[in-house]
Amino acid sequence: MAINLREIALKGEKLTSGHRLCAGCGASIIVRMVLNSAEQPVVVSNATGCLEVATTIFPYTAWGVPWIHSAFENSAATISGVESAYRALKKKGKIDKDIRFISFSGDGGTYDIGLQALSGAIERGHRCLYICYNNEAYMNTGIQRSSATPRGTFTTTSPAGKVIPGKPQRRKNLTEMMVANGAKYVAQASPSHWRDLMEKVRKALDTDGPSFLNIYSTCPRGWRTPDDSAIRIARLAVETGFWHLYEVEDGRYKINYKPAKGFKPIEEYIKIQGRFTHLLRPENAEILEEFKKDLEREWEYLLRMEEATNK
Amino acid sequence: MKTTFKKIAIEGNEAAALAFKQVNPDVVAAYPITPSTEVVQKFSEYVANGEVDTEFVPVESEHSAMSACIGASAAGARVMTSTASQGLALMWEMLYIASSLRLPIVMTVANRALSAPINIHGDHSDSMGARDSGWIQIYSENVQEIYDNIFQAVRIAEDPQVRLPVMVNFDGFITSHSEEILEVLDDDLVRRFIGEYKPKYSLLDVDHPMTMGPLALFDSYFEFKVAQAYAIANSLPVIKKVGREFGDLTGRYYDLIEKYHTDDAEYIIVAMSSTCGTVREVVDELREKGEKVGLLKIRVFRPFPLEEISNALKNAKVVGILDRSIIPGSFSGPLYHEIVSGMYHLDKRPIFQPYVYGLGGRDITTEHIKNVFTQLQEIEKLGRPKNLIYIGVRE
Fold this sequence. Notes:
The structure holds two protein chains of two kinds. By secondary structure, chain A is of the alpha/beta class. Chain A has a single domain (5-309), classed as Rossmann fold (3-Layer(aba) Sandwich), CATH 3.40.50.970. Chain A has helices spanning 5-9, 26-37, 50-55, 75-91, 107-112, 115-124, 174-181, 194-206, 220-223, 230-239, 266-270, 285-309; strands at residues 42-46, 67-68, 100-106, 129-134, 185-189, 211-216, 246-249, 252-255. In chain A, helix 4 (75-91) runs parallel beside helix 6. The longest helix of chain A is centred in the last third of the chain and has 25 residues, at 285-309. Chain B has two domains: 6-250, Rossmann fold (3-Layer(aba) Sandwich); 257-391, 3-Layer(aba) Sandwich (Rossmann fold). Chain B is globular. In chain B, the strands form three sheets. Chain B has a seven-stranded mixed β-sheet, with helices on both faces. Chain B has a six-stranded mixed β-sheet with strand order 10-12-11-14-15-16, sandwiched between helices. Chain B has 13 helices and 16 strands. By secondary structure, chain B is an alpha/beta fold. Chain A binds chain B through residues 41-43, 45, 52-53, 56-59, 61, 63-71, 73-74, 77-89, 91-92, 95, 97, 99, 116-117, 119-121, 123-124, and chain B through 26-27, 29, 53-55, 57-61, 63-64, 67-77, 79, 93-94, 97, 101, 203-206, 209-217, 220.
């Protein structure tokens, strides 16, 4: 269960270098951490998106594990078919190995177009780990808003205009939806807190039932941030209270990062990202306030849930 | 060798479910839709009573049904499903992916009209719309054919030369809900006929990881598609071979097409599925009167058996082609397009008259068919076809 860095370093890469994801992309970092955490062989399904197109340009593939992509909105349905085949063939004695199943999708493929398939798969109880690498917009098509995009964010379909300063709506709380959906293990993680992330992957893969991880994933291209800032920004997201690390095991909440002295000012996080800098202009003070309130509401809700479920 | 088989009275959908049960697939992922629902409903009973070993995946939509079938088939399982109409339409995207990934999924489709207006009755709009999706399409005239075609579909789909999904079609309500006499095969015979599925590739072969469904750009996509086109074209002899072998076991032989009094016929009607029964009756009646009429039944529409169809039709004077689906904005239905353009280059060819009939379950009667044969004689005198004729509609 415990993560041993030396052991992991010796395991070898399951996602090789040479893929065409951008420098500073969070997705490949996350995939490597996830695949290196798995103690059993895994089969992966992948929704259409940056990760899929950049890692499998025929005749090349970066994947050292069995991998399938079929379409955008159905990564969860596809892996549920793979897992059902596994159970059927295992029952008939045609497979003897102990195999785990992981699905990777971006926030577009998870929060939006793939939500129905994901909800169905979790409700049916397939033993699969669904991972959303969440960079908070449709990056593969060129930075369009998703329901994971935070309020006020600039994207190409929620531009920071003279009348509307970025996305008017708050981000959807998909992690909570997955708890309500009945996933047995649900967690949020960030690659900046790698040990926490990898332990969560192990817990999820050890869960006899559906599990869901929402993992914060930087996008230098879409966020207008430097290539070398992925982990620094991911850490700031956690330290400023923009992205909370927590887990929900069979309905019981546990917050994994609670700063004793409180969160750092959110401005530290905002000012270094092109997608947010317009929020610091005086005329956008109102939407910045709303943005902060969104984060406060999310945090207070978590505190209440942790208290209520640990009595 | 013809042995005697048990005979039972059964509805089309239940016969399909019975065939599913005897195939005993590894995975069935399906979603209910009228008029196909009983297939999955009946099959669920088999699962609940432990009569099959199948993992049944009761998905939340047809899109997920086909997606789960794709995942399961890619993992090396024998996979089946069933749908109709809007369900097939919702699967659309995934139909192409199933065939392009060369996955031998077998699906029954109780053919039904497409909305709007919403209509639950039989026509071929659903599967005809999917005619370019790369699936093999077999059409069944009656309950026995649904049952027989399912076993053959498994063999065809899984043939190493083919490895493509197969759609077994039958007319919604007209056949799906008709109770007819069915000759049931012994489970052992079915098992022998379909054999054990040995997938060429499997995602579960973790020691030999493979990437399935990659990005292929302008330097390779075209080759993938052409390879797929060759694969479905090459399935023609396999479909014929499987139909023969099935006949040897059961006495019921199947071919790509079925010719009924076409050899010396001057006037031929081309039709598909249950309407063929109606046409056959009229052919019998008119033949007794000495009229040289015939029926050409298209059993396999994809791949399109052009050579067989050409040979069956080329000596006729006038051929009436009956489409049970409509292409708004075109001059005929899809069957007419295929046959006429396919036979265009022949030196000698009949006059072809397009018809569209039976949309949304509108009845087609023997009177309608007799009228078509009368019209074919008029068209011969006219020397050219008339514009598309709609049968049995208020215009």
